[in-house]
Design goal:
Blueprint lengths: L22 E4 L5 H9 L2 H5 L15 H17 L3 E6 L6 E9 L6 E7 L7 H15 L5 E3 L8
Parallel strand pairs: 4-5
Antiparallel strand pairs: 1-2, 2-3, 3-4
Helix pairs in contact: 1-3
């Protein structure tokens, strides 16, 4: 028995989206310093965000450990086993959040979570709405669970 791939072989994962409020691009180690500053300044806020209330992340780690985490996300993306995007401010390129798209544990489909920094909390719902539309329009998932956001799940 072979395992069903997360995305079809012919599918080309999008390189991101851009709106007037934020830009998404694949997360990688080049974002390390700004990513680390974003989540470490907002740990309590992230833990209160839908999808993260029961999560063990974020948790304390060094800048170098964070780089290793970003390298893992980059490998997942290139290996097509998960897709993590950094959420950037379109003006200055600062990291304002993150989006995770990984396989559901209970069958085919995508498990999605996102967060924004505490000082950009007003972007949480616009990000979730834009991502939900993007997943519907540009991704091949028959089932999507945008964790903690039942009105956006398909």
């Amino acid at each position: 028995m072979t395992e069903t791939p997360f995305v079809p072989t012919a599918f080309v994962p999008p390189t991101g989206i851009a709106t007037p409020q934020f830009v998404l691009e694949p997360l990688g180690p080049q974002h390390n310093d700004r990513d680390y500053a974003a989540w470490t300044s907002s740990s309590d806020h992230i833990h209160a965000t839908p999808g993260f209330t029961e999560s063990t992340w974020p948790h304390e780690m060094s800048l170098e450990e964070n780089r290793g985490d970003l390298e893992r996300h980059e490998r997942d993306f290139s290996g097509r086993t998960g897709f993590t995007y950094t959420v950037l401010d379109p003006g200055d390129g600062d990291v304002i959040g993150c989006l995770y798209i990984y396989p559901l544990k209970d069958g085919p489909g995508a498990h999605v979570t996102s967060w924004v920094r505490a000082d950009r909390a007003e972007l949480d719902v616009p990000l979730a709405e834009a991502v939900a539309e993007w997943l519907e329009a540009d991704w091949p998932f028959e089932r999507t669970l945008y964790l903690g956001r039942p009105s956006l799940s398909t």
